[in-house]
Design a protein that fits this description.
The complex is a heterodimer of chains A (439) and B (288). In chain A, helix 3 packs across helix 12 and helix 4 packs parallel to helix 5. With 439 residues, chain A is of the alpha/beta class. About 7% of the residues of chain A have low confidence. Helices cover 41% and strands 19% of the residues of chain A. The relative contact order of chain A is 0.12. In chain A, strand 10, helix 9 and strand 11 form a beta-alpha-beta unit. Chain A has 13 helices and 16 strands. Chain B has 288 residues and is an all-alpha fold. Chain B has a single domain, classed as ABC transporter involved in vitamin B12 uptake, BtuC (Orthogonal Bundle). Chain B is built from 11 helices and 2 strands. In chain B, strand 1 and strand 2 form a beta hairpin. In chain B, helix 2 runs antiparallel to helix 3 and helix 2 packs across helix 9. The longest helix of chain B has 34 residues. The model of chain B has no long low-confidence stretch (mean pLDDT 89). The chains are: A alpha/beta (439), B mainly alpha (288). The interface between A and B is large, with 31 and 42 residues.
Chain lengths: 439, 288
């Protein structure tokens, strides 16, 4: 009995000690279980920068220090694939800017360091880490995490501390309807996702009259559909069918039956990946034809072709960026320079997530150079007058809200099992095939 | 005239989808009726069946019709293993424990599928061409799926109605203790119903692969719909669940055509509420 009690006591003591150690660990690291993954990249490109500085000193430019850019990214969790690509883009920019003369303010030259944390795709971590980036790490500027949800959370923190943040990987409109002043957007917002589709339709077919818009009953898809409807109507098109379907639908035949009876010129919309695939599959099965199909989210994915095979052909879809775009740039590296650097550094073809990471940092650089200051308010002011054409496309924001107004969704089309950018003409690598042949 | 075609097409769509719903719910109603346990992993077994069809087709170019034959022994085996390994231990315990066991099982299955087969959307290409009768289109894959669903359901009904084994199952559904006193080996009936239930669920999954793209995450939606149909049709009433499936299919289809596709799940579950309030034993069940 005594023995049993003393064993029990021993076990309890051990458990308490373990708990105490864990508690102390968390208390010390501010409740952030991810501290082990914290990385501060200050030294990776110190050597090349120094060489640049030495050559430039002779022309009376002085090395003045380091600009710290802070952000979180999802290296783990549900957004890890996209988050890692976005991180790669930002890392590549840091290396690029430091080996290309840094950022000049007056006759001073700054190199750039990145301070970032793994947010594990969680909003709670985003709040804690952005607070820390601003208050403890004292970063000069912020870039958003990947995804609208996380970027929204970070935007609230940036606003609280009056820090400029470039939102990338975030196409939501709602972040910019909060009256926030310090967040600026890189991606085309959801409400303009299908604008380029409608532009293509009207350019290729001025007689097009009727379109059907269908979307998943979900906040982002709804804002895409709403924006498309408004734009289509402003261009004189009849929206003959406008309806939503539930998330994870198992059958869209009735919706397609009604669309078929309305005989629209174009069927546009979508939501997530699975429903986009189901929509096209059932459209074929029910022989629902239109001259143009443009499906958001699903169609630009390579897996779309894997899932549908030859039925993916002629289907279009809007994308923020694709490696085959042909943009002329007035700032930063060209499209091919970016792709070459990226492939060389990471041994994979960049996606729009990667390009968005680089471009977010690049427009920040442009704003700092324009402001000639590291002051948050002055840089935010400078953003208002930026009108850039980078490898990512156009960049111009609405001065009051920070919403992106110039960047266009490019439109891809599957042709012979391959994906080509077909719109806008200045970015296209191929002519669009219009009208789509019948099933 | 146009309206008439849309009306008829909607009916066809509803019947095709509804018969698949019906088959998919059969396994759940059988297991529930016999053992009074709710198989929360039902949807995951459906997805597992869908993966069977997908892999057989992708890796060995086997048609889903052949996968159905493979699905029968596979489902039987899984059913027996689950019964002996898990269900037998909780079937007479409190309801919550069987619920938790199946919940755990659904999590395990979902995450195993996610880990080994990724979250990628899978699906079969169009295998059977659509048939046009006048202006009405009957989707070939769905027609094939619902014909098989109806054959399988009929088979189960005959089994239950006309064989000694089937009568034993129905006896257990009605009153386990009385059945036992009459010499029915309840343990054996439990094991067999579990296996037949899983086989049907599995085969339902194979047919789902034929009609709808799927991911490991989509098990939940099928569990939910099956649950709805089983309640509508009446607990442990296979014919009821078949009619329940058809009813839901048709209701959803007409709601989508004449109101909104987005509202159709709400309408379906509103019906569930009404049934629970007005006729809790199910539309197609006689009051006991």
């Amino acid at each position: 009995m005594n023995k049993a009690i003393s064993r029990l006591t021993a076990i309890s003591v051990i458990i308490i000690v373990i708990l105490a150690i864990i508690a102390a660990y968390f208390a010390f690291y501010g409740g952030a279980p991810t501290t082990t993954t914290v990385t501060t990249l200050t030294t990776t490109s110190a050597v090349p920068t120094t060489t640049t500085v030495t050559t430039l000193t002779t022309t009376s430019i002085v090395y003045a220090g380091t600009i710290k850019v802070g952000f979180t990214t999802s290296v783990t969790g549900s957004l890890s694939v996209e988050g890692t690509r976005q991180l790669h883009g930002i890392q590549l920019w840091q290396e690029w800017v430091n080996t290309h003369g840094g950022i000049k303010i007056g006759n001073k030259i700054y190199n750039v360091s990145l301070v970032y944390y793994d947010d594990q795709s969680s909003k709670d971590n985003v709040v804690a880490f952005y607070e820390r980036l601003i208050t403890t790490d004292k970063v000069d500027f912020l870039i958003s995490p990947y995804s609208s949800g996380l970027a929204f959370t970070a935007a609230a923190v940036a606003e609280k501390y009056h820090k400029v943040m470039v939102a990338t990987g975030a196409a939501s409109d709602s972040i910019f309807q909060q009256g926030y002043k310090y967040t600026v957007q890189l991606y085309t917002p959801g409400s303009l996702y299908l604008k380029s589709t409608i532009d293509l339709l009207l350019t290729k077919d001025p007689n097009a009259k009727n379109i059907a818009i269908i979307y998943e009953n979900e906040i982002f898809a709804a804002s895409v559909a709403d924006g498309a409807k408004k734009y289509a109507e402003s261009k004189g098109l009849n929206v003959v069918y406008y309806d939503k379907y539930p998330s994870n639908p198992t059958d869209l035949s009735s919706l397609l039956t009604v669309i078929k009876s309305k005989n629209p010129d174009a069927i546009i919309g979508g939501g997530h990946f699975a429903d986009g695939v189901l929509l096209i599959k059932q459209a074929k099965q029910l022989n629902v034809n239109a001259k143009l199909f443009s499906i958001v989210v699903a169609a630009p994915e390579d897996k779309f072709r894997d899932a549908l095979g030859a039925d993916a052909n002629y289907i279009m879809g809007p994308s923020q960026w694709e490696p085959d775009v042909k943009y002329t740039v007035n700032y930063g590296p060209s499209v091919s320079e970016f792709i070459n650097m990226y492939v060389k550094r990471f041994n994979e073809t960049p996606t729009y997530h990667s390009a968005g990471g680089f471009a977010a940092a690049l427009v920040l650089q442009a704003a700092i150079e324009k402001a000639q200051s590291l002051d948050s308010d002055k840089v935010r002011e400078a953003f208002n007058s930026l009108d850039l054409k980078t490898f990512f496309g156009a960049f111009k924001i609405d001065p009051t809200t920070g919403l992106q107004i110039a960047h266009q969704m490019i439109l891809i089309q599957w042709q012979d099992g391959k994906k080509y950018t077909v719109w806008p003409p200045e970015a296209a690598s191929r002519e669009p095939i219009y009208p789509k042949p019948s099933w | 005239m146009v309206i008439d075609i849309v009306f008829l097409q909607t009916l066809v769509n509803g019947l095709l989808q509804g018969s698949i719903y019906g088959l998919v719910a059969l396994g759940l109603t059988l297991i529930w009726g016999v053992m009074r346990v709710i198989n929360l992993a039902h949807g995951e077994f459906i997805i597992l069946g869908a993966y069977t069809a997908f892999w057989m087709f992708t890796l060995y170019s086997l048609q889903p019709l052949i996968s159905l034959l493979i699905g029968i022994p596979l489902g039987f085996l899984i059913g027996i293993v689950i019964y002996v390994g898990l269900v037998k231990r909780v079937v007479n315990g409190p309801e919550l424990s069987s619920l938790l066991v199946f919940f755990g099982l659904s999590m395990i299955l979902q995450n195993l599928m996610l880990t080994y087969w990724t979250a990628d959307v899978r699906g079969l290409p169009i295998l059977y061409a659509s048939i046009n009768i006048g202006s009405i289109t009957i989707v070939g894959d769905r027609l094939m799926a619902s014909v098989i669903a109806i054959i399988l359901s009929t088979f189960l009904l005959i089994l239950l109605k006309y064989t000694y084994f089937g009568r034993s199952i129905r006896a257990v559904v009605q009153d386990t203790d009385a059945a036992m006193l009459m010499g029915v080996n309840v343990n054996y009936i439990y094991a067999m119903s579990m296996s037949i239930g899983i086989i049907l669920t599995f085969l339902g999954g194979i047919l789902i692969a034929l009609t709808t793209p799927f991911t490991p995450y989509q098990g939940g939606i099928y569990t939910l719909y099956s649950f709805l149909i089983v309640v509508l049709g009446g607990l442990g009433n296979p014919l009821g669940s078949l009619f329940g499936g058809l009813l839901i299919g048709i209701i959803e289809s007409y709601t989508a055509t004449y109101w909104s596709s987005g509202i159709s799940p709400a309408v379906a579950f509103l019906l569930l509420l009404l049934v629970l309030i007005i006729k809790p034993e199910g539309i197609f069940s006689r009051r006991r």
